[in-house]
Amino acid sequence: MQSKKTVSFTVRSLSNLIRRRVDDLSDVAVSGMTGMHGAIIGFVCANLKQGRDVFQRDIEQEFKIRRSTATGILKLMEKNGLLTRVPISGDGRLKKIILTDKAMEVFELIDKHMRHIDAQATRGLSEEEIEAFYSITDKIRANLEGNN
Looking at the whole model, is its pTM more than 0.70? Predict the structure, then answer.
């Protein structure tokens, strides 16, 4: 007997499949690097290209993670030589995220890997279907972020 499909279970299943592909990054880039590490490196790089500094709170907001989770991830990335956290003048609690040369070297590999995953995920979909997907997921996100 087939159970009724639900949006939440379907999204979770897709997320798990994508996470497995993304976590294959350790084979592509740096041993011990997780998909989240790669995503953070990509996020920091994208912001740097636009001339914006990145702080831990930006990572918390972008990835919808708690402060304690972000702290643990960033500490591990720092330990693995992927980033440094530099205090800014005027507020010793606020630390800017700086990628190391090691992180910058693997960024191109990460970007190529992520483009491959995206191409694999969207294979056979039209541009209209992809846009409809984004529109629907934006609405679902807004519903879940709302205080309803």
Answer: no
